Amino acid sequence: MDEVDELIGRLRKDGDAEERARAALRLGGLKEKRAVEPLIEALGDADSNVRRYVALALGKIGDERAVEPLIGALNGDAQPYVRWDATDALGEIGGAKAVETLIEALEDADRFVRNSAADALVRIGEPAVKQLVEAAMEPEKRHLRGMIAGILKDIDEKAKWKPHDFGVRDTDVIPVPKVPKEFERLALKDVPKARVPG
Fold first, then answer.
1. Which residue segments constitute the domains of the chain, with CATH numbers given?
2. pLDDT tens across 139-149, in order?
3. pLDDT per residue as tens digits for the range 115-134
4. Model confidence, pTM
């Protein structure tokens, strides 16, 4: 039995939530695809700390099979910190469905979940821009325009100063603007400066 099998066994062990949480963290660190299905099962663990570390582990592994289960955790878990870690994981995995869900999470009742969703969208970067712009243009999401404007600004700043990949000094940067100018004209006019309301 190798380490991954042993950790999966610990993840499924009854009676010791701390051991299950440690197993989840280690599996995430190993980034072993074999652990994805057992981790997805563990998203239903009775202990909320286990669920949060499972979400983080799935994000580190980055397998798309985890997107729907993580969306389920984000939309259905009563514990805000589990939802928070689910947003973080979705930001690591990315994809259109993750972006859509993270935009919805900008309206979560918990401000830390909202902040985490915004940070996750910034990490996803350019692939999230089109959906963010479309969401900001929807009349029913008008109240999110200020927050979306801040997210787009952060994506733009991050993209403009991207380190070279050509073996030069880390401090050398190249400008790579990514946010569409029409969004600035249509949606960033007269919006508040603050990215995420408290």
1. 1-124 (1.25.10.10), 126-198 (no CATH)
2. 999 899 889 98
3. 999 999 999 998 999 899 89
4. 0.81
Nearest to 132 by CA among 161, 106, 162: 106
How many angstroms separate the CA atoms of 188 and 198, rounded?
20
**Cβ neighbourhood burial of 14 (10 Å; 0-12, 13-18, 19+):** exposed
